[in-house]
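One example copied in:
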Amino acid sequence: MDQASPFVSTPRRDIQAGLRDIAPVAVAALPIGLLFGAIAAAKGMSPLEVTLMSALVFAGGAQFAAIETWISPAPILTLAFATLLINARHVLMGASLTPKVRMSRVQTVLAYFFLTDEAWALSERRALERPVTGAYWFAMAVVLWANWTLSSTIGAILGSFLGDPERIGADFAFTALFIGLVAGFGKSRVTLVTVAVSAGVAALVHYFIGAPWHVASGALAGIAAAYLAAPEEARS
């Protein structure tokens, strides 16, 4: 009998919800994956190498940063340090999500391999109403992983035939989508202050210092702002 409240969680419902929520993200990711593949191919990477990088690294921002500085021989220490700074935000996102997921420790560790900004934002939004189950997470995250891997591979194969996505604003698609997801979290004073401070500091650091320092700076500023803006009893 499936006459229960729509808020009752079942694996089938959670899978359907995950697929529904990730669909617009997957569409927005297509031009970004194609762009990455084309740039990587132009730097001398083969389609197979692009496929393996996207499948095993699965970190769009870090992959773009690596490709931007890609030379032969590759500056391994520089790439590793830039990737560490860019992906440091995943520690904060994981700490935020862990109390809200309904998964075993092993499932959670495996799930966080697929952690992205968009998966985090969608899960946080869902957690406002119910816990995030493994069925929801993996339906959502695995689709985005497969979409990113496939689109970047196609981009590497097609290469220069794609043209420049910046001409039509496709390079901003993921950023616009993420802003929309964050805007749906609510309009509390703490949320507004945290987002405003984090975005402002990240923008200033990016302008005056450059990438990838703006990522860590924005994250730390957001944490400090959230702590200071929270009610005093919530800090104790």
Summary: The first strand starts at residue 101 and ends at 102.
